[in-house]
Amino acid sequence: MKTILGISAFYHDSAAALVVDGEIAAAVQEERFSREKYDPAFPNRAIEYCLKAAGRTAADIDYIAFYDKPVVKFERLLETYLRFAPTGMASFGMAIPVWLKKKLFVRRSIKEGCLDAKNARVLFLDHHESHAASAFFPSPFEDAAILTLDGVGEWSTATYGVGRGNVIQLDHELRFPHSLGLLYSAFTYYCGFKVNSGEYKLMGLAPYGRPIYRDAILNNLVDLKDDGSIWLDMRYFNYCQGLTMTSPRFDALFGGPARKPETPIEQRHMDLAASIQAVTEEAMLRMGREVHAKTGMKRLVMAGGVALNCVANGKLLREGPFEDIWIQPAAGDAGGALGAALFVWHQLLENPRTPRPFSLQGASLLGPQYDSDEIEQFLKGVGAKYCRFQNEAELLEHTAAALADEKVVGWFHGRAEFGPRALGARSILGDARSPEMQATMNLKTKFRESFRPFAPVVLRENVHEWFAMRPGEESPYMLMVAPVLDCRRVPLSTDDLNRLKEDPDLTRRVTTVRSTIPAVTHVDYSARVQTVDERHGRFHRLLQAFHKHTGCPVLVNTSFNLSWEPIVLTPEEAYHTFMQSEMDVLVLEDCVLRKREQRVGIRSRTPVDDIGRLDPDSPWADPLTGDPLIVSNDSARNPTTDTSYPVEEDIPRLFVMTDASSNNGHRDVTEVVKAFYEKTPFPNYDDVDNQRALLEKARAGTFARLLNEQIAYDARVLEVGCGTGQLTNFLSIANRAVLGIDVCLNSLRLAQGFKVAQALDRATFAQMNLFRPALKAGFFDVVISNGVLHHTADCRGAFRTIGRLVKPGGHLIVGLYSAYSRRLHAARRVVVRLTGVSSSWLDPHFGKIGAEGKRQAWFRDQYQHPHETWHTIDEVLTWMTEDGFDFVNSIPKPAVGTVLGAHERLFEARDSGTLSSRMLSQLANVGSGYREGGFFIMIGQRREGTS
Questions:
Q1: CA angle 269, 273, 275 (to 5 degrees)
Q2: How many domains does the chain have?
Q3: Closest by CA position to 217, among listed 198, 203, 202, 231
Q4: pLDDT bracket for residue 835 (50, 70, 90)
Q5: Do 585 and 575 meet the contact criterion of CB atoms below 8 Å apart?
Q6: CATH number for the domain including 79?
Q7: Under a CB-based contact definition with an 8 Å cutoff, are residues 403 and 546 in contact?
Q8: Buried b / exposed e across 105-142, counting CB within 10 Å, b at 16+?
Q9: Does 486 fall in a domain?
Q10: Which residues are CB-neighbours of 80 under 8 A, at least 6 positions away?
């Protein structure tokens, strides 16, 4: 028995694949385990899984095949920098340390990652040879032409040749720097998307534009030959020697600098996308014709990152010379791991190959799987409400009915997919007939750009009835685009079409109904088709059940992940994605969860049952007496005293004054601070106009992201001093009820306005004085107060007051100005007040704020605030001890070290350190503080039995 391990690593989307006696035992990307999208790290966890799945150990490995030749690639790097020297020194200085640390010493990484594979022979294959092997050897063809296209391997950027039986031969190549993949990536960069991951966004943007720059590209940037080969004018590009893809000459040709990520997309960007897509399609058509003419083959196989351009693939199949095309589903670098292993088995070891009708790769379901018993055990552990079906037919009928009712369904079944597409094992599904489904899934389920199209999944036996494809034609890997049939289209008038072409709102363009399956019909009537058949098992049977239920064999199928994450791998990840988004139903093997049945910890209004009992999940209490309040849409009433407080603009007005906040006889500090924020609410919503923008902003801060990931979904969460409620709204996007309170009504109006506009029903805002909170004592699981208590007259008293709201076992999170770090900021305040100067050289945070309104609000908060105090970790530790809290965590830590780790467990108790370690830790952060202005955060847990 021969065991061959294939590895791709260090560049983009690392992966491992295991081939045992010619059979693909397992294949998976490292990102699925690390949860870092397109993770380039050495795939230790992927290797571990592949061996486990095959029942093998590292000692059983006979060959380890790496998918390219690092030394040759390094030679290309050096030659390129020498050619452009000295202009490439900045890029060279960044690249060389990485190469010298790991990329050049792959053999060492393999030894470290496969310690027990002492007898394994390590082989290094050519990059495009690995791509070619991944395309041909799993394919269903006895012989075929081979075409590989990507950015660059060692020197090759494209190759073609022939595969016959168990041998591949590549005879022709295109060499760096001339690359169709890098040309496309240059436009990806220029249009504001991330290179090596945003190319599919550019492809999705293209149908909104017109190819008006096609001639400019062909006349200036690229000389496209009749055989499909290209020559690039490198004066327009900067990727050989610089830190950007394009040069100033490129910018001048297309009307300005590259678009900054997350800024508005203009018609110019849409037209550029359409233009480079047209050039790419023409280049691939010419290549296809050349390869066909030179090889004489009727069939073609493809791999490499450019082979993921499914629009060009569909055009090549429909208009090109080949009868059939098979494309590696993991066409990028990840697939190179599989190609390397298969190359060793067939070509080097000369083992025969017998093509299979559905390909050796089947449905490309080669990753981990989980059984219903372990899923049920997990669901019980998190307190989820679920139903377990014992009969598959009943499960499928239940799910099909939910889909027909326009519910968004998370589908988790069997082995995970290998490659970048969800193919029915880790998918989010919806009814393709729904006009609202595309917008719902983009904006509230995936949290991604509104213009992005969704793919249809269709029963293979019905594909020709809905799309311009042949009867029984397969596209199991979602790598072909085909038009929706005319008979399924909804006619649009010429006026409507012209109006839509000029509409700057991409959401209106994409949500216009164009067919009877509008959720999967793009603006040019195209669709990226996936066909399913018996190889897809239960997923195939679900489509059949939906077809029987509705008469429609088509569903929306998109990857089971939020836009910033890799596809989910485990039941736990699927559950968290379900709870973090507006997904209605989750099917985890035989277990089904419905979102509306999951517990939410706070009810913002107070229903009363038939015998007069108040809802125990209602948090409200009279701020004067502590009696329970009955809060309706109109008022907050104390049934004991019949006192009533108004609820206006859906905000309970529960603010009452108290002598506790008087400041030694001077004007009340609470009133002063309240008046200050009424004038300029902070933080404001400039540049944050939808859920996705808020998510992007919050996730850019590690602390907010970790809070969202680690606070339980049924927790009762309170934010004290919520300002304009951005953290409250952010935390409530997940299926979690959050209450935000503040003294400033204008701030709360902004918070409420965003909540209403974005339909964040689980966020609630109320006006109250934190010294007289209108809330039940001991009610909340998590109380958060960041940057608020130091603006009160009695910070110690405020800490004690909000601490009483935490239930035993619950957590209190407090952020305060540091008596160490704030001194640096105080010096800056003096300079600003004396000179009136406010610039990024004085305070680096000025330069990080783009919107003018936001910059003004931040400036006032930091440099003109009427009252603040400074504190230390030791001071707050004393407060915690006195008030019945145990120390859990602090940021910075109680000892010098990492301020906040990317994967830190916030609520895992740690040692509080020593007096000297805490002092040194705070001194070490004087220059920066955890946040702008000098800031520290403390987390405590209330001891059981305290009051």
A1: 115
A2: 3
A3: 231
A4: confident
A5: no
A6: 3.30.420.40
A7: yes
A8: ebeebbeebbeebeebebbbbbbbbbbbbbbbbbbbbe
A9: yes
A10: 88, 176, 177, 240, 241
180, part of any domain: no
Q: Is the sign of the CA dihedral 352, 356, 359, 361 positive or negative?
A: negative
Q: Find the helix packing angle between 726-733 and 691-700, rounded to 10°.
A: 110
Same-domain check for residues 342 and 381:
no
Q: In this structure, are 787 and 912 located in the same domain? A: yes
Of the candidates 729, 730, 892, 884, the residue with the CA atom closest to the CA atom of residue 809: 884
Please tell me which residue, 171 or 507, carries the higher pLDDT value: 171
Helices (H), 31-163: 31-34, 44-53, 70-84, 89-98, 106-113, 127-136
Same domain assignment for residues 8 and 111 = yes
**What integer pLDDT is reported at residue 698 of this predicted model?**
87
- What is the separation of C-alpha 599 from the centre of its chain, rounded to a whole number of angstroms? 26
Give the residue among 132, 119, 110 at the shortest CA–CA distance from 63.
Answer: 119
Could you tell me which of 820, 816, 815, 787 has the C-alpha nearest to residue 926? 820
**Of 222-231, 596-605, 832-841, where does the model show the most confidence?**
222-231
Tokens in use for 742? Answer: 């503040």
User: What separation, in Å, do the N-terminal and C-terminal C-alpha atoms of the chain show?
Assistant: 67
Q: Which of 597, 625, 641 is the last residue of a domain?
A: 597
Distance CA 324, CA 258 (A): 39
Looking at residue 824, its pLDDT comes to: 77
Q: Is residue 204 a part of any domain in this protein? A: no
Q: Which residues, 6+ apart, have CB-to-CB distance to 604 below 8 Å?
A: 631, 737, 739, 764
Residues 416-443 have pLDDT tens digits of 999 999 999 999 999 999 999 998 898 8
Element at 156 (helix H, strand E): strand 156-164
- CB distance 706 to 586 below 8 Å: no
One-letter identity of residue 113: G
Q: Which residues contact 530 (CB under 8 A, 6 or more apart)?
A: 421, 423, 424, 455, 456, 457, 458, 475, 476, 477, 478, 557
Phi, psi of 739 (to 5 degrees): -110, 130
Pick the closest to residue 667 from 677, 655, 675 (CA basis): 675
- Using DSSP's 3-state secondary structure scheme, residue 584 falls into coil
Helices (H), 223-263: 248-253
d(CA 532, CA 363): 9
**Beta strand 585-588 with 554-559: parallel, antiparallel or unpaired?**
unpaired
Boundaries of domain holding 584: 372-597
Query: Are 391 and 341 in a shared domain?
Result: no
| Tokens read off for 745 | 């009504």
- Which of these three, 569, 597, 625, is where a domain ends? 597
Same domain, 762 and 897: yes
Asked if residue 304 is part of any domain, the answer here is no
Pairing of strands 591-594, 387-388: antiparallel
- Domain with residue 658: its CATH number is 3.40.50.150
pLDDT at position 907: 96
Q: Which residues of 574-613 are buried (b: 16+ CB within 10 A; e: fewer)?
A: bbbbbbbbbbbbbbbbbbbbebeebebbbbbebeeeeeee
CATH number, domain with residue 546? 3.90.870.20
Same domain flag for 912 and 799: yes
Same domain, residue pair 583 and 666: no
CA distances from 376 to 390, 567, 712, 736, 920 (A): 13, 21, 18, 22, 47
% of the chain exceeding 70 in pLDDT? 96
Both 659 and 567 in one domain: the answer is no
Residue 291 pLDDT > 80, yes or no? yes
Give CA 143 to chain center in angstroms.
40
17-74 per-position pLDDT tens digit: 999 999 999 999 999 999 999 999 999 999 999 999 999 999 999 999 999 999 999 8
